[in-house]
Amino acid sequence: MQPRLAEMAAWPSLDPALIPKQRRGAYLRNTRIVSKVLKGERLATVAKAEGLSAGRVTQLLNRCLGGPAEAPPALWQGLVPHQVLPTDAWEASGRGRFAQLLQQVPGLRAGLDEMLLARLKDKPWAEVPSPATYHALFKNLLAQANWPLDTYPYTTASLAYESVRRDLKTRWVFFCQARKSRRKAFKTKPTVSSDRRLYDRIEIDEQIVDCEQSTAGIELNVGEGLPPLRLSRLTLLTAIDAATDCILGFQLALTRHPQQDDLLALLQQCVTRWPPRELATEGLELPVGAGFPNTMEGLPLPLPREIALDNAWMHHAQSVELFATQELGATLSFGRPRSPTVRRIIETTFARLNHRLSHRLASTTGSSVTDPKRESPKNRKQVPMMSLPSFEDALYVMLAETNHRPRPHLAAATPLDAVRYQAGNSYLVSVDDHQRSLWNPFRGLKEVVVHDRADPKRKPYVNFEYLRYKGAGLLAVPASESKVLVAFDRRDVRYLEVSRLNGQVLGTLYCPGSWLSHPHSIATRRHLWQKCRQLIRASLDPLTDYLHQQRNQLNHPTEVAQFLRTYQEFVGGFGLPTSLWPRTLSGPEGRIDSKTTAPTTPVPKPGKTSGQPTRRRYWSLQLNPGGQS
Amino acid sequence: MSPPWVILQVFACGWPRMTFSIDQVNQRTVRAASLTPCQRKTERDFRIATDFRVVQMLKHHHPCEFHSLAEYYHAALLEGEPAVSRYVPQPFLVKIGKRRYVPDCYVVRDGQVDVVELRPRAEFDEDRRKALETFFQSQRMRFVVIPNEAVLSRATEASNWLLILQTLICHRELDTAQWERELFDQIYRSGGTCFGDWVLRIDRETSRYHEVALLRLLHTGKLLANLTDHRFGYDTELRPC
Question: Which residue range(s) make up the domain with A171?
Answer without folding.
Answer: 105-182
